[in-house]
Amino acid sequence: MPSGPASPTYTSGAIGPSPTHHHANHPPCQGIPCTDCTLLAHAYRPARWRRSGVFLGRWHHSQIGAAVPRLLHTVFSVPHVRTRHIAIALVAACAYSTGVAATFGEIKAAYTPSDTLILDRQGAVLHRLRTNPTVRKGQWVALADVSPALRTALVLSEDKRFYAHSGVDWRAVSAAAWGNLWNTKTRGASTLTMQLAGLLDEDLKRNSGGRSVVQKLGQAVSAQWLERDWRKDQILEAYLNLVPLKGELVGIDAVSQTLFGKAAHALDNREAAVTAALVRAPNAKAAQVTQRACAVLQSLEAHADCEALDLFVSGALQRKAFDTSEGIAPHWARYVVRETQRAAQLPSASPGSTQPAELPASIRTTVHAPLQRFAVQTLQTHLRELRQRHVEDAALVVLDNASGEVLAWVGSSGELSGAPDVDLVTALRQPGSTLKPFLYGQAIAERRITAASLLEDSGTQIQTASGLYIPQNYDHQFKGWVSARTALAASLNVPAVRTLFMVSPDSFHKQLVRLGLPLKESGDFYGYSLALGSAEVPLLHLANAYRALAQQGRLSPIRWRAGDRTAPSTSQALDAGAAFIVGDILSDPLARARTFGTDSVLSTRYWSAVKTGTSKDMRDNWALGYSARYTVGVWVGNASGAPMWDVSGTTGAAPLWAAVMNYLHKTQSSRAPQAPAGVAQVPVKFNATASSSSLATAAEAPRQEWFMNGTQQTTFTTDLIATRALSMGASGQKDPGFPSNASKQATAGTGRITAPTTGTIIALDPDIPPKNQRLTFTAEGSQLRWQMDGKVFAKGNTAQWLPWPGRHVVRIVNSKDDVLDEVKLEVRGAGVK
Fold first, then answer.
1. What is the mean pLDDT of residues 135-159?
2. Alpha-carbon gap, residue 689 to 70, rounded angstroms
3. Start-end of H helices in 249-396
4. What is the mean pLDDT of residues 268-288?
5. Closest CA relative to residue 205, chosen from 285, 119, 103, 96
6. pLDDT band, residue 238 (cuts 50/70/90)
7. Distance linking the first and last C-alpha atoms of the chain
8. Under 8 Å CB-to-CB from 121, ≥6 apart: which residues?
9. CA–CA separation, 684 vs 370, rounded Å?
10. What is the pLDDT of residues 580-638, one digit of tens each?
11. Domain architecture of the chain: domains with CATH
């Protein structure tokens, strides 16, 4: 049976004349050295054109580059139109090879995954975060870490003579040409090296209509250069990492993780066959991929069974892409990426704009993975226990005191949260009583008070723009005169407000700013409520301010990148002596016993200083404290701002703080810091005097107390008469900002309410246990009955009432229900149940 013409045979080796020889009689050359016109020589002599691919691989880029301009001049002298077209194509292909080829090392170094790996301080992976939304590329995979099955499947499927040819498979080229001539279906002639050349060079990449003749010639030329400079294993490794696969997936790591949920080294024969099939047709339908994969599988296994392959392929192609964020530190990862981009931004041509630098494949950070894992698990376990109290979120941060390194960062409760993407370490929240240590520290530094100064804890009214502001304390009774040590450690509100009156809201505001708190408004805006934490601050900044207390008042930025040796900028944000005294107070379990008891979760077996706080309506709950080496900050609440139910500082954030601090000190001790210069410790005692035994209270026990030099005092005396009506400052003088209960005329002339007064606004402290949230009313007269909103609730000259949010009318009436006096008041804050 007749057949087509015999296939042409090819011989390899250098062709054409010597590079230095001139063809005077060669029409295309016209006297030009043959180093410049060899391409045209082959176009002019079709018998040699067939071997030009081999020939092109013999010339250096610089030789070809220098030849191109003169070749372009010569091309248009070629007499035959068809031959001229071939020559133009060859010159264009030659132009693709004029640049210096990149080395394998350069290509690998320039590779950027779509995901950035966030590493801990030891190099362990904390989190994987997608940072390129346009394409999905995994980590670069070394050839040794690719499944042998996949390496074999790829070569058998795409380039059977990969290890034999030098970039171009001339047998495949001739077979393809022969098939095209006789309209016979054949496989493509592109080798893996040629395909890699197309991936490396933008000009050679396939477009929607396929590659042009010029691009294919360019591929052949570039493939020979790659084969000359790269090893076969490097070519295969680069191809596996750069080849586009299904959809947005590029490279073997992305496809193996997405379609099969495993690393590239673990792919079996069936998975390798499917992957190789996708190389040929990345976006083909499942049936086509199955057919192709079956052929590949049978080339790997002679008796492979493809019966169930269709179900396997359908399942793999429908598998959901692996998560854009995966690990144990999502919020930390996003913070690190933002800081990396910010630190690496380059100035651009347009003023005021920036051009972010490319992110590295991995970033090593200061976080300690075992601590991070413990913090996440402990936080989620604790929140599950609080679920019935309408709590779903928490955040936690751990700092190294000396270096400022972030050791743990938990931004939310994850799946337990209604807003898992919100980073509550950096979110603005009201800090409650956690600002008090800085207030007392400032007052001590300015020598307005000492740790032993007596502050009056009694009913106090503060005139504000919106009316009278009346802060409340932990239990149902005020404690009279207390020392500043007790007032801070026991978190008493009234003494804190009195202290702010001495310092002034504006001055305290400036102190908080010096400590790094980003307050948005002025001190006058917050007013006296600033003492109780009415401003909004992030947990991160608040924890760093507590770290400044641990560092004797020195403030420095946090560190997040491992190995960062740059000298930090440090400022003395608070007097060292004052910071030391505040730390001593916060570490005193006896001083905090009046509010928290002696067996509080805040008491540790090692030295530590800690403060809790709760914002209005129980929306935010805090515990911040430090040991000799670490600072731990915890926030508990709801990202939505919804209030919690009956959650105080000791039940919300404090258990988390204690658990993490105990973990840090499993094998480490923590000793009290040494006193800095400028402070001295002296013995003090407290005497109580009173004009009435009913007003007498026990004085605080004698003790050793720390003082700033020049403020030492050994004896402190309380004047209990003042606790009934007058508002007193630490000096014992009446403060004009704390008015006494002014006399009022009773409506019937036989009785009057002495406390509270009309216009009173009662601000409840969410830290107070509900059973202790009672307000005491007093009146003058006889046979009195008390009415709240028209209903009798008590008899006598005093009455106690559990406050409830809203506006209320309080009346006293006689036995005939005649109204003797009335006051109107408003209760703000969480309701008491």
1. 93
2. 111
3. 252-260, 269-280, 286-300, 309-317, 330-344, 369-385
4. 91
5. 96
6. very high
7. 103
8. 364, 365, 366, 367, 368, 405, 562
9. 46
10. 999 999 999 999 988 888 888 999 999 999 999 998 888 999 999 999 999 999 999 99
11. 1-100 (no CATH), 104-317 (1.10.3810.10), 366-431+536-666 (3.40.710.10), 679-725 (no CATH), 751-828 (2.60.40.10)
Q: At what angle do helices 286-300 and 148-158 cross, to 10 degrees?
A: 110
C-alpha to C-alpha distance for 274 and 281, rounded to whole angstroms? 11
DSSP-assigned states of every residue in 447-491: TS--TT-EEEES---EEETTEEEEE--SSSS--EEEEHHHHHHTT
Two tokens, residue 324 = 């854009």
Confidence of residue 12 (pLDDT cuts 50, 70, 90): very low
**Residue 398 and residue 513: Cα distance in Å, rounded?**
22
**Distance between CA atoms of residues 175 and 362, nearest Å:** 46
Beta strands 325-327 and 249-250, pairing class: unpaired
- How many degrees, rounded to 5, is the angle at CA 328 between CA 325 and CA 334? 50
> In this structure, what token pair is assigned to residue 557?
């930025």
Task: Tell me the two tokens of residue 687.
Answer: 């005497």
Closest CA to 163 of 96, 107, 91, 235: 235
Residue 711: both structure tokens together: 């403020």
Helix, strand, coil share (%) of the chain residues, nearest 5: 35, 20, 45
**Residue 344 binned pLDDT confidence (cut-offs 50, 70, 90):** confident
**pLDDT, averaged across the chain:** 79
Taking the model in full, what pTM does it have? 0.72
Distances (CA, A) of 470 to 456, 497, 528, 701: 14, 10, 11, 29
Q: What is the pLDDT of residues 773-822, one digit of tens each?
A: 678 888 988 889 999 999 999 999 999 888 888 889 999 999 888 888 88
CB atoms within 10 A of CB 788: 16
pLDDT per position as a tens digit, 523-560: 888 888 899 898 999 999 999 999 999 999 999 999 99
Give the pairing type, strands 703-708 and 630-637. Answer: unpaired
Q: In angstroms, rounded to a whole number, what is the distance separating the alpha carbons of residues 514 and 504?
A: 16
